[in-house]
Structure formats: C-alpha cells, structure tokens
Amino acid sequence: MDPKQWRTALAKTRRSTFGRIATLLGATELTPDFWEELEAALIQADMGGNLTKSLVMELQETANLEGLLRGEEIYTLLRSLLIERLNPSTEPVLSKKPHVLILVGVNGTGKTTTAAKLAFAQTNAGLRVLLAAADTYRAAAQEQLSIWGERLDVHVISAEPGSDPGALVHNACQAAHARNTDVIIIDTSGRMHTEHNLMAELQKIYRVVCKFIDNGSHEVLLILDATTGQNGLAQAQAFAEAINLDGVILTKLDGSAKGGVGFAIVDSLGIPVRFVGMGESLEDLAVFDPQAFVDALLLDPVSHAV
Ligand SMILES: Nc1nc2c(ncn2[C@@H]2O[C@H](COP(=O)(O)OP(=O)(O)OP(=O)(O)O)[C@@H](O)[C@H]2O)c(=O)[nH]1
Ligand SMILES: [Mg+2]
User: Fold this and answer.
1) pLDDT per residue as tens digits for the range 193-212
2) How far apart are CA 218 and CA 184, in angstroms?
3) Ligand 1 proximity of 143 Cβ (cutoff 6 Å)
4) What distance in angstroms lies between residue 33's CA and the mean position of ligand 2's atoms?
5) Does ligand 1 have an atom closer than 6 angstroms to the CB of 142?
6) Which CATH number is 150's domain given?
7) Residue 222 pairs with which residues in a beta bridge?
8) Cβ distance 261 to 226 under 8 Å?
9) Residues, Cβ < 5 Å to ion ligand 2
10) 237 CA → ligand 2 middle, Å
11) Which ligand 1 atom lies nearest to the CA of residue 106?
C-alpha cells in the first residue's frame, strides 16, 4: 500500500481523534494549556496514560532544550517519536518451512477474516498455504473458513464441531508435511482473555505446534479490534501472560477506531504490530508500516494534507 492508500483507509480514524492533535499543533503557542490539551487529545486517541505521559514529558524536555516555540515544531517531533515508538527492538521471527501462524484473540475481533486475508496474500506471493479451522466450537466457524478456503482454492483442515482443537492442529501439521506446505494459518475460536480454561487450550495448541512442525517456525499473532480502545491493551496483556505473543494484527482501522491502542500495546508489551486490517475484503490487509501509519493518522498542520 502506498501512503495515499493508508490515508484513505484511515480517514475515519484520523478524523475521529488524530485530526484534533494535528489541529492543536498547527497554530498554537506552547502555553501550559497547550500541553494539557495535547495530553488530553493523546489520551482520547487511546494512547493510554503511561505512554501519553512519557510522550508529553519527552516533547516538553526537547522543546525546552532546543528552544522550540511553535506547535508545528512539536508536530515534527511528535511524528518522529511516534514512528520510533512503533519500532520495538524485537528480532523478527525467521520463517522456516512450514511457517505456522496462530491467530488468537477475543470474540469477533476478525480472526477468521484475517486468516483468509493472510491466506490470500501468501498464496499471491506464490506460497503453498494450508488453513486450519481450530475454532471447533461452532459449526458455523468451520463453515465460515471453508467458504473462504473454497474461494481462495486453499485447503482447509477442519473437524467435527466440539472436537479437540489440539488434535485438529496436530492433523494440520501432518497434512502440511504431506502437502509440502509453506505456511499453516491456524484460526482459533474467540475467547475472553479472562477465561482460564480456554487460555489453557491455546497453550495446548501452541505446544502441539512446537512439537510437530520439526524444522518449521511459528508466530502467535493477537488479533485486536482497534475500535475496542483501552480494553484492547488489557486483552493484549492477558494474552501475553498466557502465551508467547510475537505480534499484533490491528483490525477494523477503517472504522472509527481511535488507533492509539496500537501505540499503547507496542509500548507496553514491546511486541510489534505486524499487519493491519482496513476493511472486510481479502485485499484489505497491509503489512504494518509505522511511517505510513503515523502520517496517515496525523494531519500535517503545515500542508493540511488529508
Ligand atoms: N470493517 C472491518 N470489518 C472487519 C475487519 N476485519 C474483520 N471484520 C468484520 O468483523 C466481523 C467479525 O469477523 P470474524 O473474522 O468473523 O471475527 P472472529 O474473530 O473470527 O470472530 P469469532 O470467531 O466469533 O471470535 C465480520 O463481520 C468481519 O467482516 C476489518 O479490518 N474492517
Ligand atoms: Mg472466527
């Protein structure tokens, strides 16, 4: 996606909160009121209290040190700080064959849709993909993934509703060997991060993957609905306690998400945002690009580019 497409996709998110930040930075002198308003706007954008405080403190310190006087100078600084914060120093997961993506998250965040979008992207990249419908709770969930599989011409491993998702994942790993698969994408059922039994089930899926993929690699990705705001941070923290999360996929950024929760999560857990979902179609998934993301959220106060 090019910067313009990011701007279009994030138009609502930008207008709902980030536009306010940029407008604030456009004209104002750096009065105490300015700093208070900036703090309030960052909180409102779902950045969370800790990150907001540390950002504002860093901005103030630099403004004092460098004698910055105008809002637009703070804009430039804030832009680079935000981009910097979105680049956590975690090592990227080296993908080996088969590379297993385990998608986890609370109910309705977009796991199944994202599994299909990822399958679409990987297939287009020439990789052999296998989908595993490890949401065995609902017959409809299996069906939903099977429909995507048919559309994409990607094989889906599924099982009887109510069967053990660990066993299904085992079958998927075996099928991957037999089929010379490059990527296995595992769709799991939605679970509240507060449900311990269900979190234990995820740990089992994870153990099965570790045990049966031999020389392969794996990544656990948390699918997070960006419109859920600060609760998203609580979800991310709880999932991170139960399972080793490698990254986050922020979905529904095309809605009126505040978008800031992505910054809060990267800051608090030190894991990267890997992809973002910006619509319901297969094409609406983009590899995360911190710079394009920040530029799409912040309206440039000088050029007023939208
Ligand atoms: N606007 C928009 N809608 C999305 C996006 N991703 C998913 N959705 C929609 O969100 C709804 C839920 O998506 P699912 O993929 O079924 O979510 P899930 O996490 O698999 O849900 P459960 O399996 O019930 O936990 C569907 O209507 C999707 O079309 C996105 O990036 N943008
Ligand atoms: Mg689902």
Assistant:
1) 788 888 999 999 999 999 99
2) 9
3) no
4) 45
5) no
6) 3.40.50.300
7) 104, 248
8) yes
9) 111-112
10) 21
11) 25
What does the pLDDT look like over 4-41, one tens digit per residue? 888 888 888 888 778 788 888 887 788 888 999 999 99
Would 56 be classed as within a structural domain? Answer: no
Query: What is the CA(120)–ligand 1 centre distance, in A?
Result: 16
Residue at 47 is within a domain: no
169 within domain boundaries: yes
Number of domains in the chain: 1
Nearest atom (ligand 1) to Cα of 107: 25
Identify the domain containing residue 145 by its residue range: 99-245
Cα–Cα distance for residue pair 93/91, rounded to 1 Å: 6
Task: Measure 113 CA to ligand 1 centroid, in angstroms.
Answer: 6
How open is the CA angle 55-59-63, to the nearest 5 degrees? 175
Q: Is position 87 within any domain?
A: no
Tokens of 200: 């234990």
Cβ-in-10-Å burial (0-12, 13-18, 19+) of 196 comes to: exposed
